[in-house]
Design goal:
Number of domains: 1
Number of helices: 2
Order of helices and strands: HEEEEEEEEEEEEH
Radius of gyration: 28 Å
Strand content: over 45%
């Protein structure tokens, strides 16, 4: 009996069309000096009988993280010869949810500086140093969790969001460097789902009715 009913349901879906759609919930974390940690929540996909998506089938979950970095870089070469200095104003952001969902974004503002031999003043200026302000960078990444079950229900999904400053410089054997790194984030969860059409629902109901009659006949 169970096998026959399952087969009927599968045929009904196979022979009918369904509409695909999606809904996205999002949040932001204001740009703040690193390092920082947060625990945001976003709504689950509520396909419970009393929910806004009652009867709909969840087919996909996408987590997206946009990380932003901004700040200043100060470099001073102490070498006795000219050198090319490299800098990366950078932050590493992690957005982690249940079911194996984890996104990493690494926004970076990079550049190079031609520095002369040390000019005798450790002031991040002159001919051997530089001060750069108002630098910005962004990076957007997405992923899908392995398990969707924690994202279904009438409550919220708990996430972990954090940012670590990973700014760095190189290029001179003797280098003074100073970074002011701040990071912010925009994060979201997108639910992709299927809406069975009335004809599909009717066929499923008919399949159940036929199966019930067969059971009664036996």
């Amino acid at each position: 009996m169970k096998t026959a009913l399952l087969a009927t349901a599968l045929v009904a879906f196979a022979g009918s069309t369904a509409m695909a759609a999606d809904v996205t919930y999002s949040g932001t974390f204001s740009t703040t000096t690193t390092n920082w940690n947060s625990a945001p929540t976003l709504p689950q996909f509520d396909n419970t009988p009393a929910g806004p998506f009652a009867g709909f089938v969840l087919t996909g979950v996408t987590l997206t993280l946009t990380g932003n970095v901004e700040g200043a870089v100060r470099l001073e070469s102490l070498d006795a010869a000219a050198s090319i200095l490299n800098y990366n104003l950078q932050a590493t952001l992690n957005f982690t949810g249940p079911g194996g969902g984890a996104v990493v974004a690494i926004p970076t503002a990079s550049g190079i500086v031609n520095a002369a031999a040390f000019d005798g003043a450790s002031d991040f200026g002159g001919t051997s140093g530089i001060t750069l302000t108002g630098l910005t960078g962004t990076d957007t990444q997405s992923t899908s969790p392995f398990v969707f079950a924690p994202y279904e229900g009438s409550g919220n999904v708990n996430f972990i969001l954090n940012a670590t400053g990973t700014s760095n410089g190189s290029g001179a054997g003797n280098l003074l460097q100073q970074f002011n790194t701040a990071a912010g984030a925009e994060y979201s969860v997108k639910y992709t789902y299927v809406i069975p059409t009335p004809s599909a629902a009717a066929l499923l109901g008919l399949g159940g009715l036929v199966a019930t009659r067969r059971r009664r006949a036996r």
